[in-house]
Write a structure and sequence with these properties.
Helix content is about 40%, strand content about 25%. By secondary structure, the protein is of the alpha/beta class. Strands 6-7-8-3-9-10 form a 6-stranded mixed sheet, sandwiched between helices. A 4-stranded antiparallel sheet has the order 2-1-4-5, with helices on one face. Helix 4 (about 110-125) packs across helix 5. Bound molecules: adenosine-5'-diphosphate and magnesium ion.
């Protein structure tokens, strides 16, 4: 479980998160939507300890992410994160990209790492691309490789930050299908997304961020059917 309690976060004088309270239960899929600059990405980077926070607490399975005593490397192994821009190593094959962290971080042997990598590449539909270099993949395939790479670490949580935003429209579907497959398997996921059909059809709850505040959170039927906050209403009417 991920518990976010009264979290404030600033970059210098700029207050980016202004008292976020949010609990994501195991097996839950949360979609996070909101305008640019509302703090969505910052929240994800705070959850896995990439960014410090100013006050409040974030607990992952009861471990306080920002406590001095917390072993962040250990904690991060259970939190996979995939970003909008793919960052594969171009000189390594797809398989080598996926086995890298299990081998380097977990100290796994080559055979075991490759077995796990092939299992995850198969899950995202890329088994036949294992031997090629990332430069030969389409954007959608690269993004699925990034997901396989995160999954190869056997995370308990997955954070997705607009993973389809840089893709050509015809490639969005295959990546969303991969996210849906993970959701169906019971993965706990926080997905920052602009894909309203995904938010509506796949997530258990949808949160709306506005200027550093979580203005609204509700199950999709309620969220899209009867948004309460004026800013949510304005946001949704703009994208329809
Ligand atoms: P979102 O993902 O909702 O678009 P972000 O969390 O990326 O928003 O950013 C929230 C605000 O924080 C923006 O004004 C952004 O410019 C600022 N910001 C994000 N990261 C940094 C950083 N590393 N240093 C300074 N300002 C940042
Ligand atoms: Mg962002």
């Amino acid at each position: 479980m991920i518990e976010i309690k009264d979290v404030y976060k600033s970059f210098g004088a700029l207050e980016v998160l202004k008292g976020i309270n949010l609990t994501v239960k195991n097996g839950e899929v949360l979609s996070v939507i909101g305008g640019s600059g509302s703090g969505k990405s910052t929240l994800l980077t705070c959850i896995n300890g990439l960014e410090p926070i100013n006050s409040g607490t974030i607990l992952v399975d009861g471990t306080e992410v920002h406590a001095k005593s917390t072993d962040l490397n250990k904690l991060r192994r259970k939190i996979g994160i995939v970003f909008q821009q793919f960052n594969a190593f171009p000189h390594l094959t797809v398989l080598e990209n996926v086995t890298l962290a299990p081998r380097k971080v977990l100290g796994m042997g080559k055979a075991e790492a490759e077995e796990i990598a092939m299992k995850q590449l198969t899950a995202v539909g890329l088994a036949e691309k294992a031997a090629v270099y990332p430069g030969r993949l389409s954007g959608g395939q690269q993004q699925r490789m990034s997901i396989a790479r995160a999954l190869a670490m056997s995370p308990d949580y997955m954070l997705f930050d607009e993973v389809t935003s840089a893709l050509d429209p015809q490639l969005v579907g295959e990546v969303l299908d991969t996210l849906k497959m993970l959701a169906d398997k019971g993965m706990t996921m926080i997905c920052v997304t602009h894909e309203m059909s995904f938010a509506r059809d796949v997530s258990d709850r949808v949160a709306f961020f506005h200027k550093g505040i979580m203005a609204e959170i509700a199950p999709p039927a309620e969220f899209f059917g009867a948004p309460q906050h004026p800013e949510t209403q304005a946001f949704l009417s703009n994208i329809r």
